[in-house]
Amino acid sequence: MQVVSTVKEVRDIVAEWRKEGKTVGFVPTMGYLHEGHGSLISKAVEQNDKAVVSIFVNPMQFGPTEDLESYPRDLEKDSKFCESLGADLIFHPEPEEMYHEGFSSFVDMTVLTEELCGLSRPVHFRGVCTVVSKLFNIVQPDRAYFGQKDAQQLAVIKHMVDDLNMNVEVIGCPIIREEDGLAKSSRNTYLSAEERKAALILSKTIFMGQKMVEEGETDAVKLVEAMKKNIETEPLAKIDYIKAVDGMTMQQVTELKSPVLVAMAVYIGKTRLIDNFVC
Ligand code: AMP
User: Please, what are the domains in the chain?
Assistant: First the structure.
């Protein structure tokens, strides 16, 4: 496995693979990898001749008061992890390699980014769409893998690829959870022992919501209200949002007609965590 930091190196390596007729799978990440990322990498390895992982904490997708500086980083550990899963290449650029002086082109999306994380993090999806477009142009993969954990991001990327005729197949992968249910996240490392226990309220509430739907609930407003009440039983939790939205347009719905995405962002102390289910 190779680790490179320039666009040129990626292009040269991928060009060689292409000459040999190899297919390329791609997993964009911000690093500090865990088994959630691992599931995407394993799928990329399994479904393609070559697998590329990018590790880039993208400044453009963080708001001015967010955790860009403190976001956890460990390239050495990440490299070992990727290698153990059979990845062929890590692309780990510095911000200057991705955003040269005078950078002024952006990919922006309307509608799908108006609700959920797009509402709480106004610059977030512009940063995500811009960096993912750039990474797709650099790597030119056949397939790219994204987690359902970031459900709105997955919908946004699928929509962008369709809108802009990008020649890549976007593959969504299920949420990987800790044994006790908490969705795996690089940001879980911010949690103190007490907060880690409190964070379980997210997955417990997701499972509770799923059960309500299985038992016949069709009213999205009632479902969301019940989920909010459950989160409020945890003193360390503060709701950013819990919403039921159309799975394609990300616009709020009042009825649970499939496919609906039920998504939440909840602060546990200062750490903002997300979780969701689709019904
Ligand atoms: P990140 O490094 O947080 O930007 O995540 C990179 C990719 O890994 C995104 O497509 C995420 O949705 C995906 N991912 C992160 N956590 C999980 C998880 N627990 N299960 C599945 N996919 C995940």
Answer: 2-173 (3.40.50.620), 186-273 (3.30.1300.10)
Pairing, β 2-4 against β 89-91 = parallel
Residue 249's CB: how many other CB atoms inside 10 A?
14
Model pTM score: 0.98
Mark 52-78 as b/e (b = at least 16 C-beta within 10 Å): bbbbbbbebbbeeeeeeeebeeeeeeb
Q: Whole-angstrom Cα distance, residue 198 to residue 267?
A: 10
- Residue 237 backbone phi and psi in degrees, to 5: -95, 140
The protein residue with its alpha carbon nearest to ligand 1, atom 7, reads: 29
Binding-site residue set: 30-37, 61, 147-150, 153, 176, 184-187
Q: Closest residue (by CA) to atom 6 of ligand 1?
A: 29
Per residue in 38-96, pLDDT (tens digit) is: 999 999 999 999 999 999 999 999 999 999 999 999 999 999 999 999 999 999 999 99
